[in-house]
Amino acid sequence: MKQLWQKRQEVAKLIRLDKQYGTLLLLFPTLWSLFVASEGRPSLKHLAVFVLGSFMMRSAGCVMNDMADRKFDARVERTKDRPLAKNALTLMEALVVLFFLLLSSLFLVLLLNPLTFLLSFAALFTALFYPFAKRFTYLPQIILGVAFSWGVVMAWTAVRNELAWTPFLILLANLFWATGYDTVYALMDRDDDLRIGVKSTAVLFGAQSWMAVSFFYLLVIFFLTLAGKQLGMNLIYYLSLAGAALLFFGQTIQLRRLPERPALFALFRSHVWVGLIILVGITLNYHLKR
User: Fold this and answer.
1) Residue 3's pLDDT is what?
2) Out of 22, 136, 204, 262, which residue is the most buried by the measure of CB atoms under 10 Å away?
3) What is the pLDDT of residues 208-224, one digit of tens each?
4) pLDDT tier at 79 (50, 70, 90 boundaries)?
5) Phi/psi zone of residue 232: left (φ > 0), alpha (ψ -120 to 50 degrees), beta?
């Protein structure tokens, strides 16, 4: 542990401490579900568990990804300076960090009901599976979408203690959202991935990625509209979906022009605003009609 403390800056890089947009992309759909299940008034306990849990599990996902991809990362321009790729941390040190993160997550999920506790194992399995998916399928972004969506179901069951159609509609929306924005992310590494044999939706769709991404975005709005109709949401919710749809449309136009890596990264990070806009729409839906 003393050695890890001395390497705390590398540990911070390993869990992407300075790049929390990944945590926010995991957190926002979880909060959509939590606020819907709680009709706009989630408990402080649930808020604390899911905010901290999103940080812990996203950090754990980064560690698992870097452990699995350390040899690939050393050959990719964007990732060659990651701590495991350049041997600034050992595999055993990364395992210790991962153990701490998973143990902390276990403590958090033990504060929830038994159904939610059981669902957490499915979330862990998909998170463990994702880093290896890019070795045998051109659709690893779908696996990431599933991994990033289990929080939606867990947030619902934590409040309602039962399964229902609504969280699965939100799950499908988030699955296609994550597939869309991670395709944008994968476009940054497309040339390197083609060279070293890593598969992704960006490799699969190539120059037509903008069409695939626009289709994924269309499905996001479709499933969130279905969820809204099932819940009887009011106009403010649909206005937030319209705002998200406008951002999606703007992204599609830019993607068609095949932007360079910095512009692609900016497009990826801008999805945090999509998550926030929809969360605001859900929150106002419940508070304005009281």
Assistant:
1) 72
2) 22
3) 999 999 999 999 999 99
4) confident
5) left
